[in-house]
Write a structure and sequence with these properties.
- By secondary structure, this protein is mostly helical.
- Among the domains are: about 110 residues, Alpha Horseshoe (Serine Threonine Protein Phosphatase 5, Tetratricopeptide repeat); about 200 residues, no CATH class.
- It is built from 26 helices and no strands.
- About 30% of the residues are buried.
């Protein structure tokens, strides 16, 4: 009997040691509280501990803080093995707050967007189960969920997550993290051509940074420069080259004066502005700076664009040997990128579709939970209160479902158009598929000109095949347009379709194999046919989108 009592006491003692606030646990807790403002110091303190002397609870907390310190210092641990130990421990103890934190940091070690998404969504769910009121980590979860959706061009869904993140950080009065979320919102609005909203968000971020900017902090300087870069791109899009030039010049001044290591993207924007303004000499100087920076960063996309511009400049200046060398490098690198890109494009489309479906699945699960919750509420509340609550939930879910349906439709559009265009399995149309599916991302410069030889025999068939593909995708709009305006030819109907769906101007010009000036004339003729000569108050794109 005494032996059994002794064993019980030992067991209880071990359990107590694992759960009580030990001196080590107290120390780790204090470091955790100071982590946000002093990550380097806390990192040095953690390094003084002998991990072998820690119990399971202490080790789990230690590994979690170790990952948090690395993340705060913009570094990464060698692998995620220690974090997996923390995850198993917190999962067994049902410590949902610590589990949510651990899963957030675990997501940083994944490359597959689907795995990152699943970890972040699980972290979000676990946070909601926890009694903690530290919403800083939830803001980070929302932000990176937004990043995943943004990279997959699920812009509506990304916007929802960035808004959640910025609202949280606004409540927490965390200006820096709020600035990051607002910057991403501005990028979405620029891509969606919502210029007014983009201007507002960029101005808001700059106002924040003017109060917290520290010239010695590379992270802050990088953020400040990226905001100016976005501003410059916005002014380019609306045709204000002078403003774009002044802002980009200020951006270049910042990256050259401050300790910023990633420079090529900032230089590239400035080079393109100088090119458009016809300032050849300056364009060449900064083109060479772009080349040097892109080579150091191994940024092949900026490098290929740089080679192209430098080749054109050298040719205009009569330096034909240099022009030829740059052109050869441009072609070589472009072929390499296109080859790699062709392998990735369908994978990206599939990931985009899968993520949209997973988001909808999570929404259905939450909707189901809310339904059960509503049933429970009816027992305790009056019918009128329940009705009002359910109506609010339903409207919220309906809006979110609408956003998701829109993103899924875009993905299905890409697949449908690709299928139509490569029905004959010809290699020419396989490349054409790549171009058109990339319309929702980035289409390579002058890619259609590479298909001239292979498509000459099918030149007459080309417009008809593209028209048929577009008809299959959005037949209602095309039928309505042809019925209302029977004088429109096939090319004019296709142009109207592309304007309705906000295709990029350069993309449209490439599809029709025309110059930018020719596109403007063609668009003007279409506007006259549809809106009339004197109707200058109505925007053609707005009119088509409302049909």
């Amino acid at each position: 009997m005494n032996r059994y009592c002794f064993l019980i006491l030992i067991t209880l003692g071990v359990f107590a040691c694992d759960t009580q606030l030990t001196p080590y646990m107290e120390q780790l807790t204090q470091w955790d509280k100071a982590l946000e403002n002093n990550p380097e110091t806390i990192g040095d303190s953690l390094a003084t501990l002998n991990v072998a002397k820690l119990n399971k609870a202490e080790k789990a907390y230690y590994y979690l803080l170790e990952a948090a310190v690395a993340d705060k210092n913009l570094k990464q641990l060698k692998n995620d093995s220690t974090l997996l130990i923390s995850e198993r421990y917190y999962n067994s103890k049902k410590d949902y707050y610590a589990l949510a934190r651990t899963q957030y940091y675990l997501s940083k070690y994944q490359e597959d967007p689907q795995k990152i998404y699943e970890l972040l969504k699980t972290a979000e769910i676990n946070f909601e189960k926890s009694p903690k009121d530290d919403y800083h980590i939830l803001g980070l979860i929302y932000y990176w969920l937004g990043q995943i959706q943004y990279k997959q061009i699920n812009l509506s869904e990304a916007e929802l997550y960035y808004k959640k993140s910025s609202e949280l950080y606004s409540q927490l009065k965390d200006s820096l993290y709020m600035a990051y979320s607002l910057r991403q919102l501005s990028r979405i609005y620029i891509r969606q051509k919502r210029e007014k909203l983009a201007k507002e968000k960029l101005a808001e971020v700059l106002e924040i940074l003017n109060h917290i900017d520290n010239e010695q902090d590379e992270q802050l300087s990088q953020l400040y420069a990226s905001i100016l870069n976005n501003q410059s791109l916005l002014f380019q899009k609306i045709g204000d080259l002078d403003s774009a030039f002044l802002i980009s010049k200020k951006c270049i001044s910042i990256i050259e004066k401050r300790n910023i290591t990633i420079k090529s993207s900032f230089y590239m924007v400035f080079v393109k502005i100088l090119r458009m303004k016809g300032e050849i000499d300056s364009c060449k100087i900064y083109g060479l700076k772009t080349k040097e920076a892109a080579e150091k960063e191994n940024n092949l996309f900026n490098l290929v664009s740089c080679y192209k511009i430098l080749s054109q400049i050298e040719e205009e200046q009569g330096n034909y040997k240099n022009a030829c060398n740059f052109h050869l490098k441009y072609n070589e690198l472009k072929d390499k990128l296109n080859s790699n890109h062709e392998k990735e494009i369908l994978k990206e489309l599939e990931q985009k579709y899968v993520l949209a479906e997973k988001e909808k699945e999570h929404l259905r699960d939450r909707n189901r939970s809310l339904w059960y919750f509503t049933i429970s509420l009816t027992i305790a509340l009056t019918a009128s209160i329940v009705a009002l609550y359910f109506s609010w939930i339903h409207r919220k879910l309906k809006v979110k479902n609408a956003h998701l349906s829109e993103e899924i439709a875009k993905t299905q559009w890409g697949f449908a158009l690709s299928k139509e265009l490569i029905a004959d399995n010809s290699s020419a149309y396989e490349k054409l598929e790549l171009l058109l599916t990339k319309n929702i991302k980035l289409i390579p410069d002058k890619v259609y000109y590479e298909f001239e030889n292979s498509l000459k025999a099918q030149k007459e068939e080309y417009s008809q095949r593209l028209f048929s593909a577009l008809t299959n995708i959005d037949n209602n709009f095309i039928e309505k347009l042809q019925h209302k305006f029977p004088d429109l030819n096939i090319d004019e109907v296709m142009l109207a379709y592309m304007l309705r769906h906000e295709w990029d101007i350069n993309d449209i010009a490439q599809v029709f194999r025309i110059t930018f000036e020719a596109f403007k004339k063609r668009k003007y003729r279409l506007k006259i046919k549809i809106l009339g000569v004197d109707n200058n108050k109505i925007n053609l794109e707005d009119y088509l989108s409302k049909m």
